[in-house]
Design brief:
single chain, 237 residues, mainly alpha, Helix Hairpins, 2 domains, 4-stranded mixed β-sheet, 5 helices, 5% strand
């Protein structure tokens, strides 16, 4: 086999190995990032619930103030009833009293409703805080596990980088430039097998002459359809 072709085949394998580390790193980080995202979500829920509780408490205070005003009004009307001189004044006073009593009933019902909402949201906050405490206690162990995985991945990746550096030191520069030009668009399919007389980069059949050239491996042969560098397994061996 042409030694320059062998170098490009080896380089393509090393580049694939290097690129394979990225999803491994993402997968390792995902567990910790997911835990952090959950923590942030719970923090946000607690903040939103706390603000909602404050809003409901303000509404409750307004109703309590209104209730106090109505109670005072009923008390004042009760005092006025002894001073009423005409039937018209009496009816007007009775009407005011009925309206005030209806408003008192509504205010009491609204206060009771708001108290239930506040109680429910307070329970939700406490439950969220409990979940947050459990999550915080597990976060350190998750971080330690992820760090351990990343350390192992980085060690393996470093050894592959060393292998690539050695290849780049020995590789033919003209062939490397050609390889890098194709790799810019073909990525990890820069150098591909020919199987059943078809390029496994574009899956198009190559003619007999090109196929014979690939089998001989005396030179670097590219696919006439996609431009990828071609080789056969037997030639590589």
């Amino acid at each position: 086999m042409n030694p320059h072709l062998k170098q490009l085949i080896d380089l393509s394998h090393v580049d694939k190995d290097i690129d394979a580390f990225e999803p491994q790193i993402e997968e390792a980080n995902y567990k910790f990032e997911a835990a952090l995202a959950k923590k942030q979500s719970i923090d946000s829920d607690i903040e939103n619930l706390t603000n909602e509780i404050k809003d409901e408490q303000v509404k409750k205070q307004k109703n309590e103030l209104h209730l106090a005003e109505l109670s005072q009004k009923l008390e004042d009307n009760s005092k006025k009833s002894g001073e009423v001189k005409t039937e018209r004044e009496m009816k007007s006073l009775q009407l005011e009293e009925e309206i005030a009593k209806e408003q008192v009933t509504f205010a009491n019902e609204e206060i009771a409703r708001l108290e239930k909402i506040i109680e429910l949201k307070t329970e939700q906050v406490e439950a969220a805080k409990t979940s947050l405490e459990e999550l915080d206690s597990n976060l350190a162990s998750v971080k330690a596990e992820v760090d351990s995985q990343l350390e192992a991945i980085n060690k393996s990746r470093q050894s592959v980088f060393v292998k690539k550096e050695k290849l780049l030191t020995d590789i033919n520069q003209k062939g490397l430039t050609f390889y890098q030009k194709i790799r810019r668009w073909a990525k990890n399919t820069t150098v591909v097998l020919v199987e059943e007389q078809a390029c496994r980069g574009c899956n198009m059949l190559v003619n007999d002459k090109i196929y014979a050239d690939v089998i001989k491996a005396e030179d670097i042969t590219t696919c006439p359809h996609c431009g990828r560098i071609l080789y056969v397994e037997t030639a590589a061996e």
